[in-house]
Amino acid sequence: MNAIFPDRFRSSLLLLSCSLLAAPVDAMQFELGEIEGQFDSALALGVGVSTANPDKLQVAAANGNDGRRNYRSGDVFSTIFKGTHDLELKLDNLGVFVRGTYWYDTAQRDHSQRFKDIDDNNRKTSAKTAGFQLLDAFAYYLYDINGEPGSARLGKQVVNWGESIFIQGGLNVVNPFNQAALRRPGSEVKDALVPVNLLYVTQNINEALSFDAFYQLDWEQTQLDNCGTFFSANDFIPEGCESLDVGGRQVNLSTANRALAPFGVVMNEEGVRIPRAGDQDARNSGQWGLSIRWYVAPLDAEFGVYAANYHSRSPYLGTVSSPYYSNTGFAPQLCSNLGVPSAGCGAFLASSSGQTLAGALRMGTSQYLAQYPEDIRLYGATFSTTLRTGTALQGELSYRPNMPVQLNGTDVLQSLLNANGRSPLSEPGQRPTTDSTLFNGYRRKEVTQAQVSAMHSFGQVMGANQVLLVGEVGATYVGGLEGNNGPRYGRSGAYNNGELIDNSVCLSISNSPEYCNDEGFVTPFSWGYRMRATWSYSGVMQGLDLRPNLSWSHDVKGYSPGDGSAFNEGSRSVSLGLDATFMSKYSMSLSYTDYIDGTYGTRGDRDFVSIGVGATF
């Protein structure tokens, strides 16, 4: 626990107490002539506290360690005040809905951090320490055709697809995730998705058959955590976080800078800095979806089929090769910078030091970028029913014939060296072939995911009025993985190069030689499950309801692809929480989350406690 923790924690508790004392009023309903209106507000304050010290291995990962170096056990990583307001206006069958939010995180904005302060410059709005953001803003029209109801909505909105409850990677792809907002203390489920501009239509055909369709007008990307914040995964992909240092330092830093600085190469204690090129954003057009659902009365079940075309919301690491990738015209200047005579230049470049400097030159004059692949095709099917026991059962199957799968990031960077033996992507036929060439950091694969969830309510258990148990199990299959020294996919850069074709290189430069192996990469099959139990105690005191809860997550086998992939073998988490509501207006939550990493996980040192209070009116 650091010296500033007690004062900051006490001030946070004082703010929490003051927010509880602020008496809310009822939701404001009003009329403007024939227009009916309602204005709803929610105020919340949350505090997040780290309960684990940084993993030394993860701290050693130069491009993903700012958040770890900033916080130790007992540090407050967030003290945030947030307000959200909804306005709805209705006139007959027409309506408008607008929702906006604002926030201020004093722990991130007003306090210095242990390693690097949190910076808002050039960051996405939702990732900033304070700001205002318009969320939903759409108009809607309710109608009927031959007595069958329908609706149309136009504007910024959220559309939920599929039947998944916990496991990502299925059908619910219409809206990007807002990681930055969801991970703030006191956040709600509705904070998880970014509203996007689209046209959305739903229509009943008859009592059993209905459809819905959307056409997206703008492309939006996933909102990542700001670099240096507690949950940040890396320090170079989020917008404004543009520092990618690779390769370590195998030569004297002064010598390296003397040789490379005239070429514009930056080298520091953490390695060679690769500058960022302009990101490859997706286009706005070409994103659509259609689903058809029908109810089968004899089975008391609803079935659905889905089809969509969309662009990736998550970034992929790509590169642009150096102008000296195959061109050795740099040799005379490099030797001259070091005072090496022309006659000895060839021998120097063939030496170990010369090869290292040439590799650093190629790295430092290359570029990296975030790529957002387009035109991902998605097909799926769902079902939902209620069993005779009263258990709600639902599931979905999703299939993507051309899903982009991220190549191992370290292998992608190794390919910039134009040297054999460094990784599967360094071999002829895999690596870039020309100077200043874009290298896509992904390959398209067939990806299929299936998941089934069940929900059952038990009455009068452990003194509770009700116990709700929810569970979900899922599995992912990736077709077409090369294997046998072919390209590798996934695995965090924190685990170094992995086994190289010439593995002596990995063993010589790795911070953790035990990870110079061929494990932890995307596998053809992976699976896991999630569970959550909630006990409801109503009327504990007059107007007071309590809901203790317990959540468990386990990735049993294999490694699936994707940002924050669904399954990472051996990774588990447990969360204990207590939610309280008073007079259906005030709320308070307390939770503790413990991450238990698998061999190649990156969350094992991100355990935390979250406290939140709120009021709705």
Automatic annotation (TrEMBL):
The keyword Signal applies. Keywords: Signal. This is Adhesin. It comes from Pseudomonas fluorescens. Residues 1-22 form the signal peptide. It comes from the Bacteria. Pfam families: DUF1302.
